[in-house]
Amino acid sequence: MKFDENDRKSLIESLPNSQPQIQSTPQRQSDDDPHYQQTESFVAAANIENGLRQNPALSYRRYTKELEKFARAQAKQLQILEKIRKQEDKERNKELLGQQPSPKYRFQTWIKMYILTRLRDDWIFLAVLGITMALFSFIMDEGIQMCLHAQLWLYRDLTSHIALQYLAWVSVPICLILFAIGFVHYVGPQSAGSGIPEMRTILRGATLKDYLSLNTLIAKMVGLTAVLGSGMPLGKEGPFVHIASIVAELLSKLATPFHGIYENKSRNSEMLAAACAVGLGACFSAPIGGVLFSIEVTTTYFAVRNYWRGFFACVVGATVVRLQAVWFQDADTVRSLYPTYITTEFPYDPQELFIFVIVGVLCGLLAAFFVWVHRQYVLFMRANKLMGKLLSKNRFIYPAIITLIISSITFPLGGGQFMSGEIDSPQQLTQLFSNFTWTSKDLNMAQMDIVSNWSSDYSSIFINLICFTLFHFFFSIIGSTMALPHGMFIPALKIGGGFGRLIGESLALWLPQGFSFPTLAPIIPGGYAIVGAAAFSGAVTRSICVAVVVFEITGQIAYLVPVMIAVLVSNAVASLLQPSMYDSVTKLKNLPYLPDLLPSNSCIYNIFVEDFMVRDVKYIWQGITYQKLKEVLKANKTLRCLPLVDNPHDMILLGSVHRHDLINLIQEHIGRDRRLQVAQQWQQEVDEQRAREQAKDYQGSANNERRPSRFEVVAATDLLHLRQIANDEMLPPNRRAEALINTLSPRKSILLNRNSTDEQTDPEGGDNEAANISKRVQLPGDRVVDMSAEMQEKWERDEMLKTVNLDKSQINIDPAPFQLVERTSMLKAHSLFFMMGINHAYVTNIGRLVGVVSLKELRNVIEKANVNNVAVQNPREELPEEKALLSPSHTAVDLTITTIDSSITQIDLGSSYESANVGAGLNIASQSSYSQTNANENKKSSDV
User: Helix/strand/coil (H, E, C) string of 602-665?
Assistant: First the structure.
């Protein structure tokens, strides 16, 4: 604060001469009051002046204190004023810029900046992935056990009447299944099914919409928990592979929200392959078998550099899963999932190896029959009109009927007593792998309890094992047709375990002392159950490393040689008869895949890319007009990328452009934002011209009618305008633009009762064209200046005839799309598509675009080659004349911004790539959920 001379003199003259200094008021105000601080400053200055005037000989110390007091008061006043100014600035910024960041938002920003960025490191990313999957596995297992215990508790508590027990036993599974059906359908329809066939498709380069989204993750976890908690004869290994892949995708996006792992296709494949291994490792606590199984089932070509990623993540996940069992489930120590205790020094005789070979052959035949029955039942469900009507009317009827039948069969007082229906799947597998003979007479109490679950008053253990095997063989197939998350690995283990236990118990009954009588090495039925489980599950999945998975989940390696022999034999037998379960499901769902080439077929070496490529390529070129670009997009709705050439004559390939970027380019060129901007610019020019004319007329009238004045009168609105400009300068650029538009827009008087939309006319009636240009739309708190319908149509027609400048546009152009030459062999193309994970490649001849090859053409020619039915074209024949890409009729351009907005919204940018000349796009039609999803997707496609 400045203390000038006039204030000082007036203050000193008002003081009495007899008073040496002015004292402050008795009632002291608050030190934070700026008026009080100002008064203190005046008082201190007055005391100094008064003392110097009355007694110049006063001591120097006295007036030094007064000076110090005055300086302190001034400093404190400045501090208070600074606080007030900061508070006012904060309130003004809050009013202008919106809500200030909350502490929660600042904490989230700190988390993203200092913690989530660490996920870019592979070690930390894989460790977090393994720990997350272990936590998910523990939570889901706890939920499954709670549902199973609730069903068993209701059954055992209602012992007064059998009907009430049956009602309690059946009602819980039906409620859980109906809940799962509704939840999966409305939250994530893509979560239905196993997950491994779809992951194989994704790892091979195809794109499945919303398959790795958060909604699918939630639906998969909740649906799988409800399905397994209901006691359905299904598994969880396939859904866990899917869940781990979704978690890996979401973690990569969370770690790097703008340029993440998911944007790099090569890195994406590596992380998804590691996630598949983590899913199996967390499901079975089998890190080695999980890695090998994921490699063997989900991929065809696997990079060795990814080994450490899969093993590291699997070890972390399996370790955390086993430690959780110790911490929260009262486990004694870290042990296998289904422990066995075969402690004999001679687990099997050499003569038993022949029996194990027979077990492998029988399991291979049963596995092939299992896959065939599954495919035939699915085809029957699709072809049956009655089932189609039933599923179309209500999606809850079929699952309710299936659940009622299965629950009724497993009722403990009914059919459940013949198939151990009162115990859950982990207990069933553990008891099947037990190392004692169930037909033995010398059994302790624990062993008798186990045998009581597999026998009844009306049947022996052999009848129960047969019923158990047949029930899971057929009803696991029937249950898998429900549109719910499920797996087939655990049912295969149970079927193979029951079949192997049946053979082992039969041999133990026929040969109680074993094959070698002098050595007294009895037959162990539990070993046959382990061999049967490995052989049948390996034949169903067509995987050799299932043997390693069985070793890890049982903790038993004594039967290493028999298990490997049986698995190899069963795989050989099943491969001659039927494809694997995952290949069969892939074909049933019509997922984009590449079949394997038969090495015995010699014609595959004489087929080249030019024999089956598509020659009529849809493309764009430098200098294309927006109208022609729009017609190309409209005529090829299934293409995700379009090749870019220099001109239609030379056809030199320059790159490829994504469809989404081209649609955004058209939207930016004639979209609503640009249209409003142009309309606002036109309106501003009209207003400025009108203002100049009015100012000129006013100046002329003022010069004629008024005399010169000595005073200049400034309107109050000008002061308000200057203040508004000062406030607008403090706004950010986007808010400043909005404020500028609102400032330039003419204001509507509150005294006039007009409609919310009206045309502005010239008050003087001199500009009719300006009256038709502008149409104002009054919204609450906002004013929009838009074009009329006629002006909009004319403006869009003129804009669409302009050429596209791709060099100056900000769209992403891939300068190096995957290319092949005409003489590339089919064998090499097959290997490249497999290893690179691509879904299409352009065919060039000395840089000139001559064709395109997609996954569908390659798949068709491979299928024909495998059956020796390939019609090879003559490569020397002349190419057909180039057809005009666009129709010559460009008379009228019926295009409005409403059409463009709706088309941009409705176009499915996430659909998988399929060439328009080849046929339709991806068709996933395995079950009702997939069929309904495709129906909705087809409805969404519309004209641009």
Answer: HHHHHCEHHHCCECCCCCEECCCEHHHHHHHHHHCCCCCEEEEECCCCCCEEEEEEEHHHHHHH
Same domain, 632 and 522: no
CA 246 – CA 190 distance, rounded (Å): 12
> In this structure, what are the phi and psi dihedrals at residue 848, rounded to the nearest 5 degrees?
-90, 130
Nearest to 565 by CA among 541, 544, 537, 540: 544
How many beta carbons lie within 10 A of that of residue 944, not counting itself?
21
The confidence score (pLDDT) of residue 515 equals 74
* Among 674, 637, 641, CA closest to 811: 641
Does 598 score more than 80 pLDDT? no
The answer to whether 153 touches 185, Cβ cutoff 8 Å, is: no
| H or E segment and range at residue 832 | helix 826-836
C-beta neighbour count of 312 within 10 angstroms: 21
Q: How many domains does the chain have?
A: 4
Q: How many Cα atoms within 13 Å fall on the side-chain side of residue 217?
A: 15
- Give the pLDDT confidence score for residue 756 in this predicted structure: 39
Q: Which two tokens stand for residue 447?
A: 């062993």
Sign of CA dihedral 729, 733, 739, 744: positive
> Does residue 269 fall inside a structural domain?
yes
pLDDT at 744: 45
Domain that residue 163 falls in: 118-328
Given a contact cutoff of 8 angstroms between Cβ atoms, the answer to whether 531 and 563 are in contact is yes
Distance CA 292, CA 387 (A): 40
pTM: 0.67
Residues 499, 639 within the same domain: no
CA 577 to chain centre: 37
Looking up residue 277, the CATH number of its domain turns out to be 1.10.3080.10
Residues shown for the chain: 944
Of 265-279, 454-468, 620-634, 778-792, give the lowest mean pLDDT range: 778-792
| Cα(468)–Cα(475) distance, integer angstroms | 11
| Same domain flag for 135 and 44 | no
User: How far is C-alpha 253 from the geometric centre of its chain's CA atoms?
Assistant: 9
What is the per-residue pLDDT for 472?
92
pLDDT digits (tens, 9 = 90+) for 9-54: 554 454 444 444 444 444 444 444 555 555 555 555 566 556 555 5
Dihedral of CA 141/195/191/131: which sign?
positive
Task: State the Cα–Cα distance between residues 191 and 223, nearest whole angstrom.
Answer: 8
* Residue 267 parent element (H or E): helix 265-284
For residues 743-765, average pLDDT: 40
* Residues in CB range of 283: below 8 A, 6 or more apart: 137, 236, 237, 240, 290
Q: Is the pLDDT of residue 359 over 90?
A: yes
What is the DSSP annotation of 226-242?
HHHHTT-S-BSHHHHHH
Give the tokens for residue 208.
Answer: 């499945």
Instruction: State the Cα–Cα distance between residues 114 and 809, nearest whole angstrom.
Output: 35
Q: What is the DSSP letter of 22?
A: P
Signed CA dihedral, 695, 696, 701, 707: sign only: positive
Instruction: Choose one of 44, 68, 100: the last residue of a domain.
Output: 100
Q: Which of the residue ranges 286-295, 370-379, 911-920 would you say has the lowest mean pLDDT? A: 911-920
Span 353-381, mean pLDDT? 93
With helix as H, strand as E and coil as C, how does 402-446 read? HHHHHHHHCCCCCHHHHCCCCCCHHHHHHHHCCCCCCCCCCCCHH
Strand 653-658 relative to strand 757-759: parallel, antiparallel, unpaired?
unpaired
| Other residues' Cβ atoms within 10 Å of the Cβ of residue 671 | 16
